[in-house]
Amino acid sequence: MEIIELKEKAGISDNVNLNNLYQQFQELLKELRKRELPDNIVEFINRDIEELNSSASSGKELRKLFKKKQNTIVQLLEKELKIVPKSYYQNLWLAIGMSVFGLPIGIVFGMLVLDNMAFFAIGIPIGMVIGMSVGSGMDKKAFQEGRQLDVVLKY
Q1: What pLDDT score does 110 carry?
Q2: Structure confidence at residue 145 (pLDDT)
Q3: What is the model's pTM?
């Protein structure tokens, strides 16, 4: 089964952000076409593409729809096949590191070590670095196992 083509809508090239998102979505689909995907995954992706092709939305609404469908496809691929785009885990773990590691470390620094809660923000960059290193390690492992798509999702 083949992934269908995404049709370009009128007005996409006029909006820079929408055009960038459209090009990124096209790159994602191009990378997916290079892989042998199960039929149920291809059917799911084709349904999303058909919904985008038949949508009468434009501007912000179309941009939101593109983002939603792109995220849905990436989450499905990660959940079902463990296939991820470049820097996926690094971006995911950046936020996790700041909240799970950074805030507790900052509170420990602020309350116990320096006895001034104004210093609790010291832990956030520490947690960010921890999260990014864990995520980049996971990205490296995904690359070595051939589970990484050659596309970076920025938008």
Answers
A1: 86
A2: 95
A3: 0.83
Give the helix ranges, DSSP H, for the chain.
16-33, 39-54, 60-81, 88-96, 103-107, 123-144
Q: 150 phi and psi, to 5 degrees?
A: -85, 60
Q: At what angle do helices 123-144 and 88-96 cross, to 10 degrees?
A: 150
Please tell me the distance from the alpha carbon of residue 108 to that of residue 123, in angstroms, as a whole number.
9
Q: How does 69-108 read in b/e, with b if 16+ C-beta sit within 10 Å? A: bbeebbebbbeeeebbbbbbbbbbbbebbbeebbeebbee
pLDDT block averages, 10 residues each, the chain of length 155: 85 84 92 92 93 83 90 94 94 94 90 82 92 96 94 85
Spatial CA neighbour of 42 closest among 54, 53, 32: 32
